[in-house]
Amino acid sequence: MASHSHRPILPWALLLVIISCSLGVNVSAATFSIAEATVTELQAAFKQNILNSTQLVEFYLSQILALNGKIRGIIEVNPDVFILAAQADAERKAGTANSTSGLHGIPVLLKDNISTQDMLNTTAGSFALLGSVVPRDAGVAEKLRAAGAIILGKAALSEWAHYRGSLPNGWSARGGQVLNPYVMAADPCGSSTGSAVSVASNMVAVSLGTETDGSILCPAYSNSVVGIKPTLGLTSRAGVVPISPRQDTVGPICRTVTDAVYVLDAIAGYDPYDSATEAALQYIPPGGYLQYLNASGLKGKRLGIIRNPFFIFPNGSFMAQAYQNLFQILSQNGAILVDNLQIANLSAIFSSQSGEGYALLTEFKIALNSYLSELVSSPIKTLADAIAFNLNYSTLEMIPQYGQTLFLEAENTTGITDPLYQEALASMKSLTENGIVKLMMDNNLDAIVTSNSTITPVLAIGGFPGITVPAGYSPNGVPFSICFSGLQGYEPRLIEIAYSFEQATMLRKPPSFLV
Question: Would residue 236 show up in a list of annotated catalytic residues for this protein?
């Protein structure tokens, strides 16, 4: 393992050296292109000896060099990436046990709040954590390495996973402003912005994001890729810069449902450093999730349509017609649409009445201080230190001072014994049980269908899963998607629904980089 004493502070200078020393991609098979290739196609190319991991890394690095200066999806590239690629190539040649894994030899990009014990930094996009040393790989990173995946680098994000203050979606001090590759003036959404943008732009095929409330589903929706927000605890959060252990999840962002399921299979499961993973083991099906990639998966599925507020469009508008067409596709493929449903108390969930905001402030202070205390070394050791850093750093006028209102409010919380915190927990539990849970049970639903990711507060406070799939493009080129969500452990049926919809439509197309 590389020494921490030589961390790459200027990754793009390093990347230029790497690119200039590589030989370039030479895949000659007429029917194969690395661009837009799925994990399955990449593995087939490996087996047919028309591609190896070193060539694949070279291609992605060339894409990064050409595109990242425009859209800023990646903060840092792993300086050991060619060593890891050569190791994967050697393992494949030798036929080692893990070389049959679906992710073996596949480069993966991790959001920059997911720890790796290597030459990469883990900073949540903040200079306050630059140079910090983590005690171990995050649980999901360890599982990816065990599957033979190559850690390509760290993705840009909304700083501190969009939990600092009034930051623009996709902005961080280290990474700058991430842009939407379809229409660069459009909202890229946050906070796993770089993970989604990089996958959409073919700078990598596979990435990980994190979600506390919307941070996987929203950027996936906005950048025309597939995002899976898993059931709470299905994937480990150990080693992830936290917001709330009660809501934080880690999930895949990829171009296809199949690729996302490969990743989910690799990262789901028990981690001794995250107690929530033990409770969630009951939801993982024997044989994993790939078995649910069923092209007929919509047949017989009961889908609840929540028109208000998720499908409110002017009559005759492009979006109204587009989603009506999508409903027809769902129905034609065997789904039973249960229309015009309502989630009780939805307005309360979307407002401060839910208690989510206050609970997150309390949990963030506790969780962040715990994470920082476990670091081997770090410029900051507490949330109070981070607040002081931001105040001092902004005076250098090197970055905009977008504020840190959430940091300040969190620092003023008094812990989990606070009666207001306990009231917030009780409120969220009641809203969940009397809202989405009652609706789905009363109507025997397999999933709820929404037009976008704005259902995420409902999923966040309940610890529930969701999958978003590309569904088309507006007349000006901005992507839109469809979101399928359910209750804890509903991943198998959500995967069947999402995959069947994807195969019936195949609506995703590469980005056009419109200004």
Answer: no
pLDDT number for residue 19: 37
> Residue 401 has what pLDDT?
57
Inter-axis angle of helices 257-267 and 39-47, nearest 10: 80
Beta bridge partners of 447: 303
**Distance between CA atoms of residues 262 and 243, nearest Å:** 26
Q: Ramachandran region of residue 35, left (φ > 0), alpha (ψ -120 to 50) or beta?
A: beta
Can 317 be counted among the known catalytic residues? no
Distance, in Å, from the CA atom of 345 to the CA atom of 355, rounded to the nearest integer, reads: 13
- Write down the pTM of the prediction: 0.94
To the query of whether residue 215 is one of the catalytic residues in this protein, the response is yes
Residue 505 to residue 168: CA distance in whole angstroms: 33
What 8-state DSSP symbol labels residue 271? B
Whole-angstrom distance, CA of residue 71 vs CA of residue 54: 25
Task: HSE, CB side, 13 Å, CA atoms: give it for residue 336.
Answer: 7
Residue 211: strand, helix, or coil: strand
* Cis ω before 191 (30° cut-off from 0): yes
Kindly name the residue from 53, 101, 111, 132 that is annotated as catalytic.
111
Q: Which distant-in-sequence residues (6+ apart) come within 8 Å of 426 by Cβ?
A: 355
Mean pLDDT, each 10-residue run in order, the chain (515 residues): 39 39 44 93 95 98 98 98 98 94 97 98 97 98 98 98 93 95 96 98 98 97 98 98 98 98 98 98 98 98 95 94 97 98 94 94 98 98 95 61 88 97 97 98 98 90 98 97 98 98 98 91
Cα dihedral 254→256→259→261 (10° resolution)? 100
**pLDDT computed for residue 394 by the predictor:** 62
Dihedral sign from CA coordinates of 357, 360, 362, 364: negative
pLDDT of amino acid 140: 98
CB-CB contact of 452 with 308 (8 Å): no
What is the chain's Cα-based Rg? Answer: 22
3-class DSSP state for residue 376? coil
Taking CA 242 as the corner, what is the angle to CA 276 and CA 388, rounded to the nearest 5 degrees?
155
The residue from 101, 126, 158, 191 that is catalytic is 191
Angle between helix 81-94 and 53-71 (nearest 10): 150
pLDDT, position 29: 62
| β pairing state of 336-338 and 302-305 | parallel
pLDDT at 353: 86
Burial of 94 (0-12, 13-18, 19+ CB in 10 A): exposed
Number of helical (H) and strand (E) elements in the chain, helices listed first: 20, 13
d(CA 77, CA 204): 11
